[in-house]
Design brief:
Blueprint: E1 2-5, H1 22-32, E2 36-38, H2 45-54, E3 55-57, E4 63-65, H3 67-73, E5 86-99, E6 102-112, H4 115-128, E7 138-139, H5 143-153, E8 158-161, H6 181-185, E9 194-196, H7 203-206, E10 216-218, E11 233-236, H8 242-250, E12 257-263, E13 273-275, E14 280-282, H9 284-289, H10 305-312, E15 326-330, H11 333-341, H12 348-360, H13 364-369, H14 373-380, H15 382-393, E16 397-399, E17 408-410, H16 414-420, H17 454-458, H18 464-471, E18 477-481, H19 487-501, E19 508-512, H20 515-528, E20 536-539, H21 540-552, H22 561-574, H23 579-589, H24 602-615, H25 622-633, H26 635-642, E21 647-650, H27 658-668, E22 673-678, H28 692-696, H29 698-701, E23 706-710, E24 712-713, H30 718-728, E25 740-741, E26 750-754, H31 757-771, H32 777-782, E27 793-797, H33 803-812, E28 817-819, E29 838-842, E30 851-856, H34 876-887, E31 890-899, E32 926-928, H35 933-942
Bound molecules: adenosine-5'-triphosphate.
Amino acid sequence: MLIADLHIHSSYSRATAKTLNPENLWLAAQRKGIGLLGTGDFTHPVWLQELEQKLVETGDGAYELNPESARALAAEVPGPCRAPVRFLLSGEISTIYKRHGVTRKVHSLILAPDFAAARRINARLDRLGNITSDGRPILGLDTRDLLELCLDEAPEVIFIPAHIWTPWFSLFGSKSGFDALEECFDDLSGHIHALETGLSSDPAMNWRLSALDRYKLVSNSDAHSPAKLAREANLLTCEPTYPALAHALSSPGGEGLAGTLEFFPHEGKYHLDGHRKCGVRLEPSETRELGGLCPVCGKPLTVGVLSRVEDLADRPEGYLPPNAPNFESIVPLNEVVGEVMQRGPATKGVTQAVEQLLAEVGPELFILRQAPLEELERVGGPVLSEAVRRMRAGEVVLEGGFDGEFGVVKLFTPQEREQLKGQGSLWREAPSTRRQLKKKALTKPEPAPPLLSLAESTGDRLNPEQQQAVAHRGAPLIVRAGPGAGKTRVLVARAAGLVEEGAAPGRVLMITFTRKAAEEMAGRLAGEHPAAALVKVSTFHALGREILAQALGRELVILGETERAALIKELAARFELRPSWAELTLTRLKQQVHPEPEAEIAPLWQAYESALAERGALDLDDLVRRAALALEESADLAHTWGARFDHVLVDEYQDSNQAQVSLLKFLLAGGASLAAIGDPDQAIYGFRGASREGFLRFAQDFPGAMGIGLTRNYRNGEAILQAAQGLLASDPDPGRLSLSAQAGPGVKPVWAELTSPKAEAAWVAAKIVELTGGLDSRQVERGDAGELAPRDIAVLYRLHAQAAPLAQALAQAGIPFQVAGQEPLAETDPLDFKAQRVSLMSMHAAKGLEFAAVFVVGVEEGLLPYQPPNGEPADLGEERRLLYVAMTRAGQSLFLSRAKARSLFGVGGPRAASPLLGDIPTGALRTERVVSRRRARQIDLFA
Ligand SMILES: Nc1ncnc2c1ncn2[C@@H]1O[C@H](COP(=O)(O)OP(=O)(O)OP(=O)(O)O)[C@@H](O)[C@H]1O
């Protein structure tokens, strides 16, 4: 019989022993009696490299320690334990993502057929996330997509949902799991053959679900130190090779996998239900009676494995399937000996006694399972042999674990311990002091008031003003809408409504501000009405390009951004002008159809335009204005485009500039209807020639216009909206709408001051971990209550230069994230667009987006408003609006922060808070006092 432990970790995983290297694993495996051991952590590139150096292939997907090392270490293995050890490449991946509106955290155990396959899988994973900061990486990928990736790279991959019942990080867990395997793996469910039952459940519990009948149940240690290896394991009758294991785990007949070695499930940390902080431990029936709420604090209980199994089970307790594989419940040897000796399992006396047993009897699992009792009595005395007998017979006293607290398994009752005292050779006095668990009175607490769910309040309805904007026909329409007022919803409904009324979808034009917004809008339209999918969605740029290409009768050559910058730099040097100023001024000029360069820039303008003409090229800023020029110059062209559409809809109208408005007028010349929507308080593209005055001039540009205001905000909690509105108060506008928050009072935005950008980044990372409710079991056991997925969170900054320390801190914390607007280092992965990560982006890029939680960092003098190193300070009004945009991206939680000192563009030193902060009413923010880590440690020491 071959004992296999397939799920372990290396020293490259968090919170694991430093001693987890191949040599020590080889030694520990023999002491335990393991013949086939997963390496753990193959996704970690450095660990994989170490494995490649130290292991040699045995030719069948299995590896062994290189013979020289094995020879050198052989003497360290107790004689009767010496036996061959094979390794298979294994790893565990944590995926955290939103599915069906719920944040899922699922761990998967993956076995790769060989090093080449492991490297291929790693190369893909490396493009999608961070695999270097943790041996068990956390990825913002759907578990189904992770499986697809593995199958792509290694069709023979063994993919096993890990410890399927743990509440937080598993397929069926009570906190974030699914009710059926198919909900998680969809079309790929057929590739799952085995499930890992985890410490808190044993096969008997799993047999109660007929849905699991077709899966092989495996058990592994998930060890974080060599001593914990094989605390659970598999009994194999097959050869120690990869293909043999793959067959054993997938063959319907059951050959190859004879059974498993198990913890008494009560000993697992999540067997029963309860609240560790409140000292409450409950059986499933008690939890049900309490409605799932803690009788002490009234908050939801941590529902453990037994409850969850009962919820999903369709068979009674004790059900035995035909041909049920065997399983044996064991207690680790040091715990058995510890109880016999009445000492802690890690004490010196116990360790020595265990050593003696290994040296005289054999490996641990042999001692526990098979060694003749007389032999154990000879070496360890009668109490030891009686202890082992009882364990084998299942005659144990159990106290179930709950809410992260290990349970207790005892082999003797307290009275017996008294009687036995002094009888055995390994018997010592020193009664253990197990913590007594209180079971609090079962009084029913007041139920918590139901939370307002956004989904409930939403529906598919439009409010009366929205309806009006959708239904209006005739005169040009301008809709002024506050943040979160449903602009997208209105535009989509309007376009769909027009199509339903009979408008030809191809003759309806929707203009969005960015390409990304266009893609999103197109998707929403398709969802609204099948024919609405044919509505033309475009940006002004793309439209300009199309018109120009038609005018010129050829495809356009567009100067790339880098080439453009280089050209301007060269010319700026020639005319002794500052390149950044020249770039901006050229851009600004090109937002008009007929620019009039001032004397200072005129020579450079001329030179730049000739250089473009020489290359037969245009720059991006040319697209709209040149299109408008072409339409001015050709009556035919103007006629064609004037008759091209019947209805035009424009989003983000506050950011359109003069050239775009001219273009728009040409498109309407044939009598098309116009509906524009926007928010002048969110005008943030002044540097591109847009102005909120442009918005307010709509009625002059399009005579006879009709205006509608949308004042109900569905995104921000009232506290967030108030703080944001307060910010605008110092920039009065008689036309400003007063907004009302529909999402309820919400919580106040947080304000925090940190010593440095690094400290600020660390604070952000720690908060993100809290918001997600913890990314590993230590964090969830600390009690972080958040339920957000990474994709619900954004970190916004004024300058891309601020991204580096944030990226570093998030990477270190193992948080999946992406930096928007950054060139990807590696080529992008096909799954890239599906990956779900925390977004790091500029405040400008966040326009139009929404997130449950938003961090606005660097709210400092010099950054907001931005003061370029040697240039003009940015416009105060516009910077205020930018902060307003950033703050109103947040639905539930908003965090504003700054560093007290920061070095930017080589200039360091202390910095004050942003003057804009003074515009936010006092009391609208909740200041968080952040204790530095060193100081926190000091406090800890004295606590
Ligand atoms: N009538 C409505 N009832 C309920 N929810 C709504 C309604 N209209 C819009 N919403 C929701 O409000 C949120 C904000 O909508 P949307 O993103 O379209 O706002 P917006 O006006 O474009 O905001 P911003 O200008 O800040 O980008 C979305 O989650 C949307 O689904």
